[in-house]
Amino acid sequence: MTVHAYELDARPSTRAAVGAPPLAPLQLQGGAVSIRRVNHGKGHSYIDTDTGLKIPGVTTIVGDGIPKPALLKWSAETTANYAVDHWEDLSTKAPSVRLKELYGARYAVKDAAANRGTQVHKLAERLVAGERVAVPDHLAGHVASYVHFLDDFDVQPILVEATVWHPEHSYCGTLDLIADLLDTDDPDQTRLRWLLDIKTSRSGVFGESALQLAGYRYALTWVEADGAEHDMPAVDRTGVVHVRADGYDLVPVEATEVQHRDFLYAQQVGRFLSTARDLVGEPVVSPITSTYRLVRDE
């Protein structure tokens, strides 16, 4: 396996902002909170260590509260494609084995894509921090594209993979990146502060990214690993960096207070769906035995 090495130039930027206003420093709120991110397997969750209760995450809220008709279509197409591509092999197996294999086909594809995204995210986090990284061959294109993005916009990170927390609405999340980027529309090359999510899916950027970004943007604080709590920095723009093996796109995504309100609606819908079955009781049994019976007419 070929391994590629990437590293950002650590020299001071030659494209520093000209006449840019000073950036407001982050303000420490003081004290520590009991919210902790817990990594497990391929995922993570958020725990209130004072109560032991799980706190829902931004991506979980969006996933549970927003319908995804395109995902249903993708699942059907992926299963059908697998059946056609493996027709001869499947024909030699028992029907129950075929069914199990077809049922798992879409999950194998989804897991492979999710694993690629996780690896790219981890490498991207290290690159932004200025580390030299070794990149396996199958990720070289994605990482090279991300390096081009960092260089093209002279990215100056403010927060990377930061846990955010909204105590009033009881949700957490982990944003990918808040950074200052060159403003390509400004001849003086001043900077704009972006809140960015990194996507590596082949299908591109979907509308629910607006809700995800709004959840991060309007969280009240970000929390360090030791529980130290800080005010969330204000941002000028929100968007997605769609990273592919053949390049990248910086895609603006609207994530205003309107989308944050919709995000909170999605949270309520997801909460309802998770407990809806509990609203249905057991059948009511009659207190007396019926004396009626059906009689067939001769």
Characterization of this structure:
This protein has a domain at about 5 and about 25-65 and about 135-275: Lambda Exonuclease, Chain A. The chain is about 35% helix and about 25% strand. It is built from seven helices and 13 strands. The protein has helices at about 60-65, 70-85, 85-90, 95-130, 140-150, 210-215, 255-275; strands at about 5, 30, 35-40, 45-50, 55, 135, 155-165, 170-180, 190-200, 220-225, 230, 235-245, 245-250. An eight-stranded mixed beta sheet has the order 2-11-10-7-8-9-12-13, sandwiched between helices. It has a three-stranded antiparallel beta sheet with strand order 3-4-5, with no helix packed on it. A hairpin with a 4-residue loop joins strand 4 (about 45-50) and strand 5 (about 55). Residues about 10-30 have low confidence and may be disordered.
Secondary structure blueprint with pairings:
Layout: E1 3-6, E2 28-32, E3 35-40, E4 43-48, E5 53-55, H1 58-65, H2 69-85, H3 87-91, H4 95-128, E6 133-136, H5 140-152, E7 156-166, E8 171-182, E9 191-199, H6 209-217, E10 221-223, E11 228-231, E12 237-244, E13 247-252, H7 257-275
Parallel strand pairs: 9-12
Antiparallel strand pairs: 1-6, 2-11, 3-4, 4-5, 7-8, 7-10, 8-9, 10-11, 12-13
Helix pairs in contact: 1-7, 2-4, 4-5, 6-7
